[in-house]
Amino acid sequence: MNIDQKQDPDYSTAKISYVGFIDPYALEGIIVLQSDDKKEFHMRAFSGEVARHIKSFVEGKRDGLPTIYNLIEQLCEENEILLVKTKVYESGSVLRANLYFTGKKDIVLRNYRASDAVALAAFYNIPILVRKTLLKEPVEA
Fold first, then answer.
1. Which one of 44, 49, 92, 109 has the fewest CB atoms closer than 10 angstroms to its CB?
2. Is the dihedral of CA 19, 15, 124, 71 positive or negative?
3. pLDDT digits over 116-128, tens only?
4. Domain named BFN: which ranges (predicted)?
């Protein structure tokens, strides 16, 4: 069984429902991830630059890519693997994520910055899994 087919009861699939900035200078980003049952996770405290990339990827814009995305794409092509999902979780007081690749060989890259993993998920349009304990009912305004 490929890693993208395994189910994990501790995680819910979430979609990016909002991308924005915390401050007026666009230095700190925020995204809202929403699960199928409409629970939300507000992720912040990452660079405005990453938020801008996520926003452009969600909008389908892929021009002006940072070099690292091209590097990952080339590594995947040359090794005949695909990024198939990312899992976001807490590790102490910080957010981390695992990146799951499948193809000739299944690979899991563990404990990376959650914002970078979500940006890659938006770029490749792959599932974002969020630990259920992070998801909360939305607050009515």
1. 92
2. positive
3. 999 999 999 999 9
4. 11-141
